[in-house]
Amino acid sequence: MVMNSGTLTDANNQIVPVYFMDRNSDPNKFLGDDYFIVPQQPLNVGMKYTARVIGTDTQGNQFDTTWTFTTLPAAGTLAPPAMRRSPRRRHER
Description:
Elements: E1 2-10, E2 18-21, E3 36-39, E4 48-56, E5 62-70
Antiparallel strand pairs: 1-4, 2-3, 4-5
């Protein structure tokens, strides 16, 4: 697969700088119809992103695909699981 172009945008429709890797740019030549989009900086937590890739697969078929994903919230912002305590045992005298 060869990527002709692609974008990654955040929820505010701002372009996120990314590195693209496909079979032509893979220095190890492991990729066939696979590709990678790697952000150049860490993504913001809890934000929705939209990725779009336009290219040609190994069979010569052109494609234009778009998908969305949301990053996880910041660590420690999720409610912790309920803590269970063992009942204290009273020692009989």
